[in-house]
Amino acid sequence: MDFTLSEERRMLLETTDRYIRDRYPIETRQANVQREEGFNRDTWKELADLGLVGALLPPEAGGFGGAGEDLAVVFEALARGAVVEPFLASGVLGAWPLARAGGHTSVLEQVIAGEALIAFAHGEPQGRYGPSYVAATAASNGEGGWSWTINGRKTVVLNGDTADWLIVSARVSGHTDEEEGLSLFLVPAGMAERRGYDSVEGGRAAEVILSDVRLPAENLLGESGAAYPLIEETLARGALALSAEALGLMEVCKDMTLEYLKTRKQFGRPLGAFQALQHRMVDMALEIEQARSSVMLAAGRLEGERIERERTVSAAKHLAGRVGRLVAEEAIQLHGGVAMTWEYALAHFAKRLVMIDHLLGDEDHHLQRFMAFSRMQEASS
Amino acid sequence: MDMNYTPEEQAFRDDVRAWLAAELPNPLAAKVKGGKRLHREDYLTWHALLRSRGWLAQHWPVEQGGAGWTPIEKHLFEEECVAAGAPRVIPFGLNMLGPVLIAFGSDTHKAHYLPRILSDEDWWAQGYSEPGAGSDLASLRTSAVRDGDHYIVNGQKTWTTLGHFANKLFCLCRTDPNAAKPQEGISFLLIDMDSPGVEVRPIITLDGEHEVNEVWLTDVRVPADNLVGEENKGWTYAKYLLTYERTGIAGVGYSKNALGHLKRVAAAQSHNGAPLSQDPLFAARMAKLEIDLLAMEMFNLRVVAAAGEGKAPGPESSLLKIKGTQVRQETTHLLRRALGPYAMPFLPEQFDEGWNGEPVGPDDAGPIATQYFNMRKVSIYGGSNEIQRNIVSKHMLGL
């Protein structure tokens, strides 16, 4: 039993922390959000040069990490700056299917170097958070030398508007919600019709329409019709990354609120002298420790056996939602009016914290998944 | 980071498990698991077994006859014992007074009292709380006035757990009523409960049980030699004792066991024609509890592992106390809820060993509602959860 970070991960953490502290103040973040692409390509390149994208991928894919703890360390540290560069979209959700399926090494190299962007086009208009909900179709027809024709519509594709490549899930057989019959394709983003937009807390996403997109055989990732396990694994990695990001955001919200309680005076006393507020801060701190514990557990189980991986990742994402909302709302309430302003940084951390619950499954979705996988675990033991 | 136990720790766990399987008497485990009343002899039987294996004094160093365990080993031992249905170890002498004497007692005290604790010749009780001093323990008023070679003690202690089994009382008394701060005038005295002027009166708690008592002290003559450490320094020792009271405070083993019990009870109850455990609302309540427990288990291990590296458990143990008691109370709440109407019947006679009557409702329904009420205590005792929040607020958050 050892909960200390390895030397390599400690250095990774220090590198990220230093960058955020020196080069990514909240003003930079806000300026990056205002850009047309929703982030800053130069910043992204700098962060990639520091190895922060490579840290999310294993050596066999050209990275130098890729374990659950690497994801947890990087995403928690990035959250301290509320970083909007496309780590989740490109570094995790986009890169992982490619890394696992093999091939396309030059694309992967460019992604790791911060030179190409890749987005995961999986969710669909009626799919909500269902991991196997795919109505988009892939027909194998061989017309004019092409092997595949893709049709369908993908929704809220993170950084889908600026991505160079899309990883698209499409169905080759079965019903809309079935795990069987799914395939993943690497699609040049220009072949899709895309409508980009801002997201409420900063960052960008897109609606993606695929109309008779024709692809050669090598753009199929892995075996046709058997992509569900890889999709599930990708979503699990994303959910862990988001849970770790939520944890970092919670720490920022807690620290800022504590600082405010110690300095802001009302009724002739610092706010922190009021027991009603002290106890609420303690409850926040306690729940954050719970969330941290669940992230550590899920990180340690990420590369393990499926049921335990899914169960612990869902526990972590559930708590990220439940505790995240508590911390965001309490931080705003304990601050009072100032937290209602766009100008004050806390609001942006709190907003991201709340909106994480809308990505890759919310508190309820992951509670249900936790229950389903707990039942599987009990049945198999 | 490595979330697995070392081979040595796994071997220790296997050893404990095998020993429990071989030595813990089945009737005793059945009583514990069935929520029956435990008597003095039950605890003494369990202590004797542990003593024979050298595992009775878990917090003492080996040279004093203790187990000399690491925090991880203590944690593993507790988990295995709860899972096997072992009674708890009565903590007052072994886990509370013992460490205080080892740290602050005179050689005479150590030579006299430690072996008697280890052999169960003495059963100690804790004389801390008073009717007017609960969370504000330092405001205690029981007085000890020096009279030659003795102190004359007058006052009233309360919530004295199992005081009706005890022959000794360690007692916080005020020896300097004029001290600048209330904490500074307190002394730590060892009192023989057979002394004239000591009277134990039962307190019946809301579940109808007799576990705690009042202890009245009227002109009790206590030899001055029974003072632990220095006069007026008792608060330091009292606080030191409380850090031991807080070890294992999260009750992870207990809650894991109780969650398993809850799942079995919920699976046996039916609701709308299906097992209650499959009812979406009830299943979601259980799953939230399970997630809280899963996270708390990791949190507890993080604190335990840090303690193993020599870091003293600080305010984190207060956080663990709050979460641990929330989880315990939620478990008993869901157990009570799971029974539906069968939570109502109150047949306290069924908690006695050898009761042959017919239960009303499911076999294991009997103690569930009363245990729910009993468990309200855990967020009150050992420093109420509000006091724990004050501690964290001051020492961790700097407010």
List keywords for this structure.
heterodimer, A: 381 residues, alpha+beta, Butyryl-Coa Dehydrogenase, subunit A, domain 1, Butyryl-CoA Dehydrogenase, subunit A, domain 2, Butyryl-CoA Dehydrogenase, subunit A, domain 3, 3 domains, four-stranded mixed beta sheet, four-stranded antiparallel beta sheet, 11 helices, 10 strands, B: Butyryl-CoA Dehydrogenase, subunit A, domain 2, 12 helices, globular
Describe this structure in words.
The complex is a heterodimer of chains A (381) and B (399). Chain A has helices at 7-23, 26-34, 41-49, 68-79, 87-101, 105-112, 228-263, 275-301, 306-335, 346-355, 363-380, and strands spanning 118-121, 137-140, 148-158, 165-171, 182-188, 193-198, 204-215, 220-221, 265-266, 269-270. Chain A folds into 3 domains: 7-116, Acyl-CoA dehydrogenase/oxidase, N-terminal domain (Butyryl-Coa Dehydrogenase, subunit A, domain 1, Orthogonal Bundle); 119-223, Butyryl-CoA Dehydrogenase, subunit A, domain 2; 229-380, Butyryl-CoA Dehydrogenase, subunit A, domain 3. In chain A, the strands form 3 sheets. Chain A has a 4-stranded mixed beta sheet, covered by helices on one side. Chain A has a 4-stranded antiparallel beta sheet with strand order 2-3-7-6, with no helix packed on it. Chain A has 381 residues and is α+β, with helices and mostly antiparallel strands. Helices cover 50% and strands 15% of the residues of chain A. Chain B has 3 domains: 7-89, no CATH class; 124-242, Butyryl-CoA Dehydrogenase, subunit A, domain 2, CATH 2.40.110; 246-395, Up-down Bundle (Butyryl-CoA Dehydrogenase, subunit A, domain 3), CATH 1.20.140.10. Chain B has 12 helices and 10 strands. In chain B, the strands form 3 sheets. In chain B, strands 1-4-5-8 form a 4-stranded mixed beta sheet. In chain B, strands 2-3-7-6 form a 4-stranded antiparallel beta sheet, with no helix packed on it. Chain B is globular and about 75 Å long. The mean pLDDT of chain B is 93. The interface between A and B is large, with 39 and 40 residues.
